[in-house]
Amino acid sequence: MFSLLKFTPTKLKEKNFTKLCSTKSTLTVNGSFPGPTIRVHKGDTAFVTVHNQGRYGVTIHWHGVREPRDPWSDGPENITQCPIPPGTSFTQKVAFTSEEGTLWWHAHSSWTRATVHGAIVILPANGTSYPFPKPWGQNILIIGEWYKGDLMQIVNAARATGGEPNASDAYTINGQPGDFYNCSKENTHRFLVDHGKTYLFRIINAAMNEEFFFGVTNHNLTVVGIDGSYTKPLNTNFIMITPGQAIDVLLSANQPKGLYYIAASPFYDGIDKYENSPTTAILEYSENFKPSPSSIPMPVLPAVNDSGTVFNFTKSLRGLASQHHPANVPINVTRRIYMTVSMNELPCQNPNGKCLGPNGTRLASSLNNISFQIPQIDILQAYYWNMSGVFSEDFPDQPPFFYNFTGDTGSSTLIPSTGTRVLMFDYNEVVELVWQGTSVLTAENHAMHLHGFSFFLVGVGTGNFNNVTDPKSYNLIDPPEVNTIGLPKNGWLAMRFVANNPGVWYMHCHLERHSSWGMNTVLIVRDGDTMQTSIVPPPKYMPPCS
């Protein structure tokens, strides 16, 4: 049974926060950081009116919601809409059709999502239940980052100089840095649990540029869902979660009554160094207990650069693939795409002096050696109304050079081409896309995200993809169905999906600095032969493009 919901209007506005011994004003939704949680049942449709009372144009994206045939509400700036101007409002329709579990919403313009984000809880459809025993309680846990400086100034300075943006000053759990940061201990977030009960933790990585290991001291976790889709239970003492991912875990409160640290520590296998202090919360048993004279124990998590452990965790994920939650993995592929993911550099364009990238260049990134350029008019509008000169339909299915992708650092790939080039698909094409990590400039993990679809992760490996031998190891029985996944450093990922959602859909790295440098493209799925297989008409009002 489908239902229509109408939510309280969402107000984007500035609010003062005091963290890390200093106070600053930052953009929020309804004055909270993180923002409010949206709770729905599978099959519901929500209408959310965003009132922008801030200083900048902003858009809102419903991360992982497929929005069937309706890209008008998807949200990425200048991809499916132009920003909502200050002092105006925009209503978005959010249809929850096949998703079930945890997703999230966030701003999708510049770096405003740092503080403009919140959880989406999609409960089972009325009359159905979880594919696991109903937990005693549920908790939302959002990992984020906090910048003491003005984030817009930080981003604009980095763009002007072509260098790395300043790193954040702290990581956070539910908006609080935790016990190991200055001026933070009294506000550390606490999760109360009853001994002997089981809890569902809905964990979201809303951080801008960091992947995290996550664990709870002396407590095992059972992964039961990822990105709004159920998984086979995976018992583990930690998870690795990339920016953009949402992972559901069960935790049994079966340890001696007391206090235990919940911690998220960064994973990074590149050459640059970022804040390395963990963010913490506290798991607190609610019954009376005698406090230990020693300090609260910390969980043992992998080392910051333990890429092997990350690879094994990704490879261990399995979709539930049950009668009520089948894995409809595409088998008969009609379109194969091979896409390199690279860090690059471009010539300096700073009129005030040299740039701060390698050897005076500006930092860049690319897919298939094309660094994506965001247009001034949104691509969806240009496509729907047949406007010329906004984008070109010539993004290649293969990279321009066939070389040793994990070893080449030649100038032919170091400096990419630039442009607003998109991938075109016919309706119902069966797509296999292989992402290939490279060591051009530098090699590292990448959090790859696709709008408008969930895809099946059918294969993952290290080194160069071999199109003869590697497909023999594909999991076509119970692969996880995700919308965001970590591409291993100097490795590959194979994904499959059916292009049955007509519209304009963004695909990008969810590490914000990489996306800002051009690690993006757009997928356009042409209409089918009927109204039911075509893009719905635009709403009466869309934010104007300046």
Description of the molecule:
With 546 residues, the chain is mainly beta. It has three domains: 1-128, Cupredoxins -  blue copper proteins (Immunoglobulin-like), CATH 2.60.40.420; 131-323, Cupredoxins -  blue copper proteins (Immunoglobulin-like, Sandwich), CATH 2.60.40.420; 335-525, Cupredoxins -  blue copper proteins (Immunoglobulin-like). 7% of the residues lie in helices and 38% in strands. The protein has helices at 151-161, 307-316, 379-384, 411-414, 512-516, and strands at residues 3-6, 10-19, 22-29, 38-41, 44-52, 60-63, 89-95, 101-107, 117-123, 137-146, 170-173, 190-193, 198-205, 211-216, 221-226, 229-236, 239-241, 246-252, 259-267, 279-285, 335-346, 362-367, 370-372, 417-419, 423-425, 429-437, 446-450, 455-462, 481-482, 484-487, 491-499, 503-509, 520-525. A six-stranded mixed beta sheet has the order 11-10-13-18-15-16, with no helix packed on it. Strands 22-21-26-31-28-29 form a six-stranded mixed beta sheet. Strands 1, 2, 3, 5 and 7 form a five-stranded mixed beta sheet that branches. It is globular and about 70 Å long. Pfam families: Cu-oxidase, Cu-oxidase_2, Cu-oxidase_3.
The name of the CATH architecture of the largest domain is: Sandwich
Instruction: Provide the domain count.
Output: 3
Total beta-strand segments: 33
| First-residue to last-residue Cα separation | 41 Å
> Approximately how much beta-strand content do the residues carry?
35-45%
